[in-house]
Amino acid sequence: MARRSDALRNDDLVLAAAREVFLEQGADAPVSAIAARAGVGMGTLYRRYPAKEDLMRELLKRNIVQTGEEAQRGLADPDPWHGFTSFVRACLDAGLSGAPSPGKAFPVTDEILAASRAARAQVQRLVTRAQSAGVLRADITAHDVVLLLTELRGRPELDGMRPPTLRGRTLGIVLDGLRAPNATPLPGPKPTWATIRKLWDNYR
Question: Is the pTM of the predicted complex or chain greater than 0.90?
């Protein structure tokens, strides 16, 4: 049991280090830098992740799963609008874009697709609840929200260069644009899972 506990702790250390190193150095960062940042030996890293692509896939999958978990936390908030905005802020604060972009270094797997669909189902529950309460515009879906999060997370390497209040101002503008009152109709059809699946398939 102690050995399993150590393995889980090492895995968390490796993934946390990988997120930081990939953000700083990009997808070409050597795994030796990740092992050094995590404080583990190369053998420990390779036993769990024989190739760097395996590490990248696991990091992406965990980021996706965490998005779904944040949506569940938002649903636990009795206030539909506060629960929704807390979800958005939590995702951005968690730095969930730490995984390298799919397709740049590894192909997307069916496991990642399944995780993405499950997470989006949780986000949709959050969206539907806020829409039913009349506080969130009715013409968006979970896919719109996830795409928006991707855009907001798009340049995490700039966070240390921005004044602390700047992202808050940008997020405030975005959230006001998502409120139901006086919303201008959006152009084009709502994105569906089929739409998103085509985007993911470009990385397969």
Answer: no
